Amino acid sequence: MRIVVLTGAGLSAESGLATFRDADGLWEQHRVEDVATPQAFRRDPALVLRFYDGRRAGAATARPNAAHEALARLSRAPGVTLITQNVDSLLDRAGARDVIHMHGRLDSALCAACGHRWAAPTVMPVGTACPDCGRPTARPDIVWFGEMPYHMERIDAALSQADLFAAIGTSGNVYPAAGFVDVAGMTGAETVELNLAATAPGRFDRVIEGPASRTVPEWVASLIG
To answer: Which residues form the catalytic set?
Structure first.
C-alpha cells in the first residue's frame, strides 16, 4: 500500500509549540504580513530575524510526542511518504525517515544569493554571511507567503500514486497543502483526517477526532501493528 501523510501544526501542539495562527489572526503576537513574507524581510529584516530566532529557540527545547514517534515508525514501512508543513524538526528527532519539509526548517539557514544551506546559528544577525559565497545574505530557510513550497514535484508524484492519504493536525486553510486531499481523492486514494475536530466536512472519506498523541498511535497501529 502506498501511503501519503501530511502533517500540520496540530501534530506538534502537544509538544508545546504554538499552532500556526490564533483566532485573531496573529502568529505568536505578530501579524503574519510582518514576519512571514519576502516583503517583510526586505522592510524590517531585524524584526523577522528576531522572530525566527525566538521560534528556533522554542523548537529546540520541545520534545517529540507520541504522535511523532508513531509516524516515525510508520515512515520505516515500505511505500510511505511523510510530508510536513511544520518547520520544527520533531519528526526527524523522533527517528522518522526521509521527511519532506515542504515549508523549510527552523534549524536551517539559506543564502538568498547562491542558495547554499547550512545549520542555522542560534541567533542570526542581519547581514550574516553565507559560508559558501561569503555574501551577507543569510535568511531563515523557511518558505514564506508568496514563495513556492519545496519538493512539490516529488509531492505531486506521491499523491498521484497514493492508495491512502492522511492529513494530521492541519487546518486545511493554506494552499497548496489544503488541496492535497482533493488531488489524492481524484486518483482513487482513500482519504482520512486526524484532527481535534473535522476541518473540511465532506472532503475526507473518514475523520478521526481527538488529540494527535492518542489518535495517531492508534491509527498507525491499525496499519502496521
So the answer is: 103
Is there a cis peptide before residue 176, judged by omega within 30 degrees of 0? Answer: yes
Rounded distance between C-alpha atoms, residue 97 and residue 140, angstroms: 23
Q: What is the pLDDT of residues 169-219, one digit of tens each?
A: 998 778 899 899 999 999 999 999 999 999 888 899 999 999 999 999 999
User: Is 3.40.50.1220 the CATH number for 1-17+64-103+149-225?
Assistant: yes
Q: What is the fold, at CATH topology level, of the domain defined by 18-61+105-142? A: SIR2/SIRT2 'Small Domain' (3.30.1600)
pLDDT at residue 174 in the model: 82
The pLDDT tens digits for 16-36 are: 887 655 555 445 677 888 999
Q: In the chain, what is the greatest distance between 2 CA atoms, to the nearest angstrom? A: 52
Question: CA 140 → CA 38, 71, 116, 207, distances in Å?
Answer: 11, 26, 12, 35
Rg, C-alpha atoms of the chain: 18
- Quote the pLDDT of residue 20: 56
Beta strand pairing status for 190-195 and 164-168? parallel
